[in-house]
Design a protein that fits this description.
The protein is mostly helical. The protein has a domain of 136 residues: Tetracycline Repressor, domain 2 (Orthogonal Bundle), CATH 1.10.357.10. Helix content is 72%, strand content 0%. The N and C termini lie far apart (60 Å). 32% of the residues are buried. Pfam families: TetR_N (PF00440).
């Protein structure tokens, strides 16, 4: 029997988390079985339990990881309102709509996360609040709790717009919805709305 070092185990775990994140956002949590997830990672089903206690454990880990990745992306944008405008325009873009596996976990998985275990909901809540605080840091100073609720409302509006745009079979209507959603989000933020 071959024994792998700690670094190999960590790299394998990371590969499982990353491939599961893409698969969950593409096919949903319920639509992604362990054998599919492990196949995506190039591993056998038996290897799964060396890294996770259960699929629920994996889901909670993936949700937190996906939001941490999104938070890092938000932090990399320009500071202040200009950065907020960049974030909104990228989020409500045709590219994001057409690439769910590479995008926002909230837009792809929110309905399923709401039906997940308390541990997954807790992981989501803690991680989404870090993302929200990254957005709040770009808003003018004011009441921190009000700014947090405003940023959560912005995320909810953008995620809902993106979900609906993905569900529409009429491509032109979907494109128009994304454009309108962008204008609405920028108006909410009071940022420059020029294209």
């Amino acid at each position: 029997m071959v024994r792998y070092g700690k670094e190999h185990k960590e790299a394998t775990r990371r590969r499982i988390i990353e491939t599961a994140g893409r698969r969950f956002k593409k096919d949903g949590i319920d639509g992604s079985g362990i054998s599919t997830l492990m196949g995506d990672a190039g591993l056998t089903n038996g290897a799964f339990y060396s890294h996770f206690v259960s699929k629920d454990d994996l889901v909670a880990t993936v949700v937190a990881d996906q939001l941490q990745t999104q938070s890092a992306h938000v932090c990399a944008q320009a500071p202040g309102r200009a950065g907020l405008e960049q974030i909104v325009r990228e989020y409500l873009s045709v590219q994001h709509r057409d690439n769910p596996e590479g995008g926002c976990p909230s837009a792809a998985l929110l309905d399923e996360i709401g039906r997940c275990t308390d541990a997954t909901k807790q992981a989501y809540t803690e991680s989404v609040l870090v993302l929200i605080d990254d957005i709040v840091a770009r808003l003018p100073e004011g009441d921190p709790q009000s700014a947090r609720v405003e940023a959560l409302g912005l995320l909810a509006m953008m995620a809902g717009t993106l979900q609906l745009s993905r569900a529409l079979s009429d491509r032109r209507l979907s494109d128009e919805l994304l454009e309108r959603g962008t204008r609405n989000a920028l108006a909410l933020l009071g940022t420059d709305q020029s294209s």
